[in-house]
Amino acid sequence: MKKTIIALLTLCLLLTACTTTNTGTTNELQPQEYRTGNQGLRITFTANTPPLRLFDTDEFNAVIEVENLGAYSTKGVADRIYLSLFDPTIITGLKTTGEQIPPLEGKGPYITRGATDRVSFQGMPAMLSAKKIDKYPLKLLATACYEYETIASPNICLDPNPYSSGAKACTPQNVGMSSGQGAPITVTSVQLEPRPGMTRLQIDISNTGGGEVFRPGIDTLQKCSPYAQGFNEFEELNQIQVYDISLPGYSILSSCKPLNQGRIRLINNKATIYCEINTQGQSTYSTPMTIRLGYGYRNIITKDIQLISIQ
After folding, report:
1. In whole angstroms, what is the distance from residue 207 CA to residue 287 CA?
2. Into how many domains does the chain fold?
3. Radius of gyration of the chain (CA)
4. Strands (E), 239-283
5. Which of 169, 198, 187 is nearest to 295 (CA)?
6. Half-sphere exposure of 61 (CA within 13 A, CB side)
7. What is the pLDDT of residues 193-226, one digit of tens each?
8. What is the CATH number of the domain that holds 60?
9. Closest among 156, 176, 94, 148 to 296, alpha carbons compared
10. CB neighbours of residue 301 within 10 Å
11. What integer pLDDT is reported at residue 184 of this predicted model?
12. How far apart are CA 276 and CA 193, in angstroms?
């Protein structure tokens, strides 16, 4: 009898262990919501590169870490980091063409963190004794210029006959999206105004990443460099390309305003797009929509160091 009880208890323990293991494995494979947050690429100076105190006989080495905090996988073809100084004669040998940012995979349904890589710069300090200087405070500027995308996918309720009574599958209401979409440009809300046979949309967009936005393209990426002449403020800066605004099976982009060659301009880091959807039938229904935006982005960080004469 005792042997039978022990055997049954052992079998129950084995079954419980298997169930727990299977449940844990299933949870690990569940896709996660990854289009959250308001950052793209983050750049930081790695520790002690360069050191805070640098002798003028030492080689200048700077290493910048680049991490993709967002949901878009960068291509790296024309994305670059530039290292510049307030006085370029003090550190020589830094390339004005910058260094390429490697392609960096973004977050995904099974990837909780984006990829990280490093970019290096080498130069040589000037001899301070020749300039009759004992020490010189120096500010380094690292400028990251890259292209990024935002994809927002809110679910909206469409009511072809909003003035009718009776039970309805859903109720049209505004959709808040303050948590971001894993990108520095954020679709903050989609507001709905249902009318018979048509629904008007107000799509609010904000630059929440802390950097500067500019029109995407290789030519504007080159103007992002601190060594270039800079952007045309009206035509290139604060310009976002609206690639598409769509519902399953069709685009509503042609109804959207105000767009200039498919672009919307940010004013005080905000913009609003107005679109229309033709609704058919009599029943309300919930449907996903997709908003896809493209842009160039610039982040700048600084580091203060002191150059010291060895003589």
Report:
1. 26
2. 2
3. 27
4. 239-247, 250-251, 263-265, 270-278
5. 187
6. 8
7. 999 999 999 999 999 999 999 999 999 999 999 9
8. 2.60.40.10
9. 148
10. 14
11. 98
12. 9
